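Dissemination and training. As part of the outreach component of the grant, students in the summer workshop were shown how a complex can be specified as a set of sequence lines and then modelled as a single object. The example used during the hands-on session is reproduced here so that future cohorts can follow it. Participants entered these lines:
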Amino acid sequence: MAEQQNSTVSGYASPAQIDIKQKGKQDSSKKNKGSLLQTVLYGSIIPVALIVLWELLSRAGVVPSNQLPAPTTILEKIISLGQDGSLWGHIWITTYRVFAGFIIGTVAAIVLGAVVGFYKKAEQLFDPMIQAFRSIPSLAWVPLFILWMGIGETSKVVMIAVGVFFPVYLNIVSGILGVDRKLIEVGKMYGLNTFQLVKRIILPASLPSFLVGMRSGLGLGWMFVVAAELMGASQGLGFLLVFGQNMSSPETILASIILFAIIGKLSDWVLKQVEVRSLHWQDRLEK
Amino acid sequence: MSLALRDVSRTFNGTTAVRGVNLEVEPGEIIGLLGTSGCGKSTLLRAISGLDSEYDGEIEINGNVSRQIQDTASFIFQEPRLLPWLNVLDNVTFGLTGKRKDKENRAIDYLESVGLRGKESLYPRELSGGMAQRVAIARALVTSPEILLLDEPFSALDAFTKMQLQDLLLDVWKKYQSTIVMVTHDIDEAMYLCDRVVILKGQPGEVEREIRVDQERPRDRGSEYLAHLKSEILECLDLNKK
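and obtained this result:
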């Protein structure tokens, strides 16, 4: 440490040091690129091998193609759906439902979670009730929602919102309640009022837990959109599942499942990026 | 800035942690609260800071009796307590108000004086324990506190960093002439830094003795005078086994 101190005291801008710094930066960016490639490479070894195996087995006739079609057949199905234009409609409507539900559920969870987290009275009033509701499997609401709101968009979006609400709510409350008292004392020592404490200490400190809640909420959103679309829809990836079943076309079902996987993963990746950007300060295990 | 404690006691759920403490501190004086663990040193310091207002008795700061947090006081905790989502510079400016540029210039001055110039953009997770504690010191000093409260600020550090930071604290004190009250369980530290050492003892803790350290600073850590004083303090704490 003494060495570091000396170099900083004696002047920060000696050219040799800057050189080292820039070199370090270049190295690290190179390393990042390399590691991204590596991640993609390692991550795809097993799936690619499995797909190749599957294709070979299908071609050899080991698995009956009317039960489990070959990957190429599924790909053809997706392409043909894309060519007649219906694919985009399905993807769009499903994504729209998930995001509408996700946003409504998250906003409701933020409002209630913040109130319950900050005020003892609100916790006593609301939390037992919310916990009780949580123990109801959310799918049990489906018939009631359909009865109330019909089979249209509203009931689907509300259902997804209900599914998203709970993980986000629980994580916000535990995030707020888990803020380190020691950091709050630092704020108090500087004479911050309640509002400033919330804004400058409690919110940033509970952000990690909030983001975890959002990610698991989004996952549940995708689960619930399938349920909602299975119940009754004329469009959407969930509808494709039912449609494939009725037409006894497993390639349609598998195409839909694969599309769910891709879009679900993409949306999670977006949130993951938000998390990485906003939580870069966290001291985490790096393997 | 002067400070006076009059008959201060603090009771937690029926258990008295510290009882009947009286203390007068002159402006610019360095006072050490010394005692074994559990005798209420930190409790007393928290009462002075205003973080704890449930005590009995009176605490007067610069002639005002108040139980509120004083904006002329700064607290350095046992741990750095940096906000992990802010970088070093933003951590230091945390308690300041005003224009961003002014705040930053001020913070940089103080970072310079704790030897951390050039580390402004690091995040707390990238700092060693000693560096983090130096940032905490800069953060406490940047508001130009007239009274500085330290709760075992160097106890988690290795011996060399500790000595370095003790000297740093003295430099800062010389420059800004703040009144300092520090809690410590390190006898050498208390003798090296303080004008007066207040020894607390017992459970509930009471003031056992006040010892004045009559020696010009900088003091020689190994001097005979301090060694003699140390044995006196150990005697007083019943720690001198013969």
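The two ends of chain B are 42 Å apart (CA to CA). Students were then asked to discuss how this feature might be tested experimentally.
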